[in-house]
Amino acid sequence: MSTKTQLSTPILGVKNVSKEFNFHGRKVPILKDVSFSVHENEFLSIVGPSGCGKSTLLRIIMGLVPPDKGEVIYKGERIQSVNPHMSMVFQSFALLPWLNVLENVELGLEAQGIPKKQRQDRALKIIQEVGLEDFEDAYPRELSGGMKQRVGLARALVTDPEILLMDEPFSSLDPLTAEGLREELLRLWSDKFTSPEIVIMVTHNVEEAVYLSDRVIVLSHRPGTVLSEFDIDLQRPRNKRGHELYELVDKITSLIT
Amino acid sequence: MSIPKVHYSRLIGLLEALEDFGGKVDVAKIADDLSLELDDLLPVIEAAELFGFLKTESGDISLTNEGLEFLSDGTRGRKKHLGKKLLMLDHFKKLIEFINQKEDKSITKEELSNFLAEKFHEIDSKAASEWTIEWGRHGLLLRYNSKEDKIKLL
Fold this sequence. Notes:
A: alpha/beta, four-stranded antiparallel β-sheet, B: alpha+beta, 60% helix
């Protein structure tokens, strides 16, 4: 159970969040009384069985969807609309097919009213950081899944977000590609230039969550409630195929299944 | 051998996984661990072997010193390293000569495809030209703008 992270002031607080969806006139509870906080420099993962409301929770955190009950507090303030200090990486990449890599990445900055020249400089720098150099002219159809998700990552990071939200970022990639991209993410996470203060990742892959995170929150089957939290105290760089990691994976998996 | 017909990110993934296994592992075991069919994994292994990053020996694959070096390079370092390996392939050597002979130092995708069919007898030369552009971009050798349909040297 988590203890050490409660010492500092949290940057983000999710407080008693509940959400229902209306399905053909029937109310279906998705999330029930979910509470947790996230602290500076934390990589947090939320795991749970499919349909436990993980993705909905991420959208509520970002302010895209309002909760029915409860609230999200960011740096002491209640979130009422989309939080500009956060950006999201999607499972489906969500790239615009008629824009090339550079234009897709710049899109993240356009809404902020930054001048064209600055926008381009910043985008080119991020493109290099995520390993997309020499692909600036490429259109999404010319890219492999792994490269598409790098564009997704670059577009999210270009705004220099304080919190990076990731919704199953590796689950539509083939296992080998995912393997490489996870390493890349850890490298970006430790890199000062691109590093957001917090990463919150939603995944159904327990192994991936334990490998990447400082803390893992386990949600129950629908309606999602917090079943448990685990501090992952394994030293980095971690061995993904190490014995200690697997013990934790087993422990968490047994809670969900 | 012609250029590998696998994605660069899969090559990286294989090398990273192999490193986790202590640099040497049974092929069947790593395939199992990654939930991949062997015939899905083999082209990636061949690609890594072609570049000298990995060795195969009686059912085991192991990282070479060069493979380890490649992994320890940063994102850009890896691309540079890959570029050097690509330049050792006949495929890229001849292609670069071909582009350099052109007046404006550029070719179209169709010219690339024809070149690959003639020089390297690629059956699916269209697909081969896509792979060439992809590897050329990863190795920081080629630049391609699909709007202008121009392949240039970087």
